[in-house]
Amino acid sequence: MRYSTLAFSLLFLLSLGSLQCVSTRSAPAQGRVVVQKKTVVIVRSRKLAGYTPERRKATVSYPIIVSGITDPVVLAKVRSLLNLKNVFDMSLQEYREDTWLSELNYRINYNKNHILDITFTQEGVAAYPDSQEKHLAINLRTGALIKATDVFKRESLAKLATLVDGKLQAEMKATIEEVNQDKTIDADEKKSVPELYEGLKIEVKNLDDFSIDDKGITFLYDAGFPHVVQAYQPAGEYRFSYAELRPYLQREGAPQSLTR
Questions:
Q1: 54 lies in which domain range?
Q2: Residues 86 and 122 in one domain
Q3: pLDDT (tens digit, 9 = 90+) per residue, 170-222?
Q4: Domains: count for the chain
Q5: Measured distance CA(208)–CA(87) in Å, rounded
Q6: pTM of this prediction?
Q7: Is the preceding omega at residue 72 within 30 degrees of 0, hence cis?
Q8: Is there a single domain that holds both residue 190 and residue 235?
């Protein structure tokens, strides 16, 4: 009888421990959302695609928030921001009725500490292949996009813009020097490159687009060069550690304290 009681107790403890382990594994991490990828293959009519059969199909992948946000108002805001129409100003039906798009996809850069950092990319072909990106950093507490004034001291934004712009200017200077040393580039093209960079400057108004991770912040800048000169477009990604940004941050302990 004593052995039976001991065996029953042991089985009970083991089953309890198993239930606790399952519960821990299934519970979402605090401050993050569970995202499910939805993929749709668009099939266009032969009449629309014409003599370019490769344009008959396009693949569209977009995120769906499954769980992690309990406030229905906040959830609705986040889902609205991730809606295709609000990303590239094209709905699924509009993509179906146009032959440009080949593929639309996304990548999640960061998903914790109440921050969802995500980048959408679309690729297509018109007169030439082209692609665009749209980046969003979302505050999962409020459902709003994270702006520079949410993270950095207002009085420090001008100095911060100067700091970021320094990296842009250094990048452009290095490109000009590289072009001038390249013997395969003719004189007219060498002369035109500095002209492309005239007026390019990161200002306070450009600080709202940045990507967040555990180690720092990357400011994003799109110079918007036309396709024929995109080879000379600045990379537009200027990274700083939280240590470097400490004088400008509203609160320490980033990224845990970036949102509230």
A1: 34-145
A2: yes
A3: 999 999 999 999 999 999 999 999 999 999 999 999 999 999 999 999 999 99
A4: 2
A5: 16
A6: 0.84
A7: no
A8: yes
